[in-house]
Amino acid sequence: MAIAAIKYTAGKPQETLESLAREEALQIKINCRAYTITMRTPGQDDKLALGLLFTEGIIHSREDILSVSQIPAPHGDHTLVVEVTIREEVVRGKNLFNRSIASSASCGVCGKTELCDLVSPQQIITTSKKLDICLIPELLQQMHARQSVFEHTGGSHAAALFSIEGKLLSVQEDIGRHNAVDKVIGELFLDNLLSQADILFVSGRVSYEIVAKCAQAGIPFLLAVSAPSSLAVEFCQKKGITLVGFCRENRATVYANEGNILQQANMLQTFNNQPHETSYF
User: Name one Pfam family in it (predicted).
Assistant: First the structure.
């Protein structure tokens, strides 16, 4: 799918049409009971459901399955339910419904089995603050300079929290991008400093789960090195979160709530004066 966005190149805004990887929620039910939810790119959902149940050891052969059906979810615009009916003798004695397997394009909705659990906080995030687009290269550099695990392994994600003025509040790394976000939010939560956080910056892409964490923490600006998913953009639009993707040395793309971006006359000069470094993401 494609959406209208504002792309900044060397500080100059330009309207653009951006293609997004589609992300929607899929609920899997076993014998009419909710089993798990996964975030995925739609398509081949019956195969996804059966593959998950097979790799989890719930089913072992096609003979274990009585039927598979795909039905619209009872609520929500971006959901689908796959109902798998399994022979009772196959599931008998298995403790299936006291746990949930939640996954996305890399986890994030852990603990959710009902589609209504995915509803984000009802409160819309409002802010009078404006993000200076010229700060992005500096924020990126601050986060990268503290990615020691990535520097040594190339195998970790990072998340950072900043004030609107660009003051670094926390940087954390983890092999899981959702874990990195949980760590920076948890650090400021423990120190009673979460109210100072205006900007969440992540080193990868943005999916629904990252937006949900940002919304739960009440952070109005979400920046990412890579692209957002369609559902991430939609939730940011609804929740008032300003979403900026493809944040690099001299460019960034605003996908949601662009009214919170500060546009200055000296943007072009500021961006052109930024040092050019080799991309490390």
Answer: FdhD-NarQ
User: What pLDDT score was predicted for residue 280?
Assistant: 23
Least confident of 9-13, 71-75, 101-105: 101-105
Q: For residues 272 and 165, what is the distance between their CA atoms, to the nearest angstrom?
A: 20
Cα dihedral 170/104/214/72 (nearest 10): 180
Residue 275 has pLDDT above 70, yes or no: no
Average confidence (pLDDT) over 25-39: 88
pTM, entire model: 0.70
Per-residue pLDDT band at 138 (split at 50, 70, 90): very high
Q: Name the binding residues.
A: 246-251
For residue 242, the one-letter residue type is T
Residue 168 pLDDT > 90, yes or no? yes
Is 107 marked active-site?
A: yes
- Whether 23 and 40 have beta carbons less than 8 Å apart is answered as yes
Boundaries of CATH 3.10.20.10 in the chain?
A: 24-103
Render the burial of 140-151: b for 16+ CB within 10 Å, e for the rest: bebbbebbebbe
Provide the pLDDT confidence category of residue 54 given band limits of 50, 70 and 90.
confident
Find the radius of gyration of the CA atoms of the chain.
Answer: 21
Residue 242: per-residue pLDDT:
96
Q: How far is CA 189 from CA 100, 142, 164, 165, 277, in A?
A: 26, 21, 18, 20, 34
- Start and end residues for every CATH 3.40.140.10 domain found in the chain: 2-20+122-272
Q: Which of 107, 134, 214, 236 is catalytic?
A: 107
- When the candidates are 3.10.20.10, 3.40.50.300, 3.40.50.920, 3.40.50.980, the CATH number that belongs to 24-103 is 3.10.20.10
2-20+122-272: which CATH topology?
Answer: Cytidine Deaminase; domain 2 (3.40.140)
